[in-house]
Amino acid sequence: MAVEVVTSELVPPSEPTPRGALWLSNLDLAARNGYTPTVYFFRRPDDGFCCGDGKPPRGFFSADVMRAALVAALVPFYPFAGRLGVGRDGRAEIDCNAEGALFVVARSAGAVDDVFEGFAPSEAMRDMFVPAYESAGPGAPLLLLQVTFFQCGGVALGTAMHHFVIDGRSAFNFIRTWAGIARGDAGAAVVPSLDRTPLRARPQPAVLFDHTHEYGGGRRTTAAGGSSKQEYASAILRVSGAQAAALRARAGAVSTFRALVAHVWRCACAARALAPDAESRLYTMVDMRGRLSPPLPEAFFGNAVARTSASARVGDLLGGPLGFGARRLRAATGHGDGYARSLVDYLETADLAALPRGGLPGTDLRVISWLGMPSYDADFGWGEPALLAPALMYYPGFVYLLNCPGKEGGVAVAVALEPERMERFKELFFEELATVV
């Protein structure tokens, strides 16, 4: 399916915004030095919006409305209109210069359902629906957006946000604000908290926890030839609200996150045919906004997440109940202010540019959870998206948990595994779910 770019422009804020350097915390600089590409799909409502001639449909997802709302949203979120810069000390920072975000309008002769049904994250999907970016280094734009109109009348919205600037909650707060402005709902706007200084290291660093597993890279791996790029197969697997509730009960009345991750962990170990005495480590992120003392504002704009991990023998994971893996996760994700302060201090003495950000060994998983975030508040005036998903995965073992649209409590699991392991993983994933309801 071909996508043709109609217009591409840099969109600055609609009003003057503060200029100068915005400091990036150690948690910002410990994030992946690159963009996080996502895509939203919107089905055309049955109300005659569509032209049927391959051109953007009249009214539905008006590019003019989207652009006007974007320039307004960039006023409070003005760092997104800046560029990645470098301070005198060589440390990366945001140059708030109001050069603008990239806004692309494109069209496709295809139908949205041809992509939406069976969508799987891949480089091809990223290249089709997310603006191209050559470099994420100094001078790079921090926000890239693409609205693609399908001939059938459906729309895809692709986003790429630099990870040094935001975490998941920050990204969704921006989309929520942009969408609220577009549909004329001023009450939906989020006023971002841009002060990152609460995440400065202490004058006398005190590292009280072991952070080497998550940031030292002892178990990282790269593909043959020294490249961190590894081939993977990906899929999005849907879990109903009833299935999620049954998994929670089976795991011992734990959260949806812990029950589902424990299930994914077990299925991945079995699909990979790992030896019973092998160690498997599962990495994840914890949002520290409400765990710091004092807590950060909910609208904190930046990276406020800390990596953590849990490990277990494969034989224990597969031989024990589902609750075993869930309990391992509970111990790894229950950290508070002390852990976050220790981590920031640890990173203060680390070479941030040299932190390993490559792939994982074939025993391990990395799980990113967007559960509970306002991910489906992307209603620009024409209804909520039919699907939100990462446009790209990075290597085998990468997993996202996402809310499904609607109020039924369903969860979408986006997973990347070694190509030869994916079909067996899917079989195990659904076989177990079939026994819990």
Could you characterize what this model shows?
By secondary structure, this protein is of the alpha+beta class. It has 2 domains: 188 residues, Chloramphenicol acetyltransferase-like domain (Chloramphenicol Acetyltransferase, 2-Layer Sandwich), CATH 3.30.559.10; 205 residues, 2-Layer Sandwich (Chloramphenicol Acetyltransferase). The strands form 3 sheets. A 6-stranded mixed beta sheet has the order 1-6-7-8-3-13, with helices on both faces. Strands 9-15-14-12-10-11 form a 6-stranded mixed beta sheet. Strands 2-5-4 form a 3-stranded antiparallel beta sheet, with no helix packed on it. β14 and β15 form a beta hairpin. α2 crosses α5 and α7 crosses α8. It is globular, with a radius of gyration of 22 Å. Keywords: Acyltransferase, Transferase. One of its GO terms (molecular function) is acyltransferase activity, transferring groups other than amino-acyl groups. Belongs to the plant acyltransferase family. InterPro entries: CAT-like_dom_sf, Plant_Fungal_Acyltransferase. It holds the Pfam family Transferase.
Kindly state the percentage of residues in helix: 25-40%
CATH topology of the largest domain: Chloramphenicol Acetyltransferase
SSE-based structural type: alpha+beta
In the sheet with the most strands, the strands line up as 1-6-7-8-3-13
Mean pLDDT: 91
Let me know the largest β-sheet.
Answer: 6 strands, mixed
Approximate shape: globular
The first-level CATH class name of the largest domain: Alpha Beta
Count the strands? 15
What share of residues are in beta strands? 15-25%
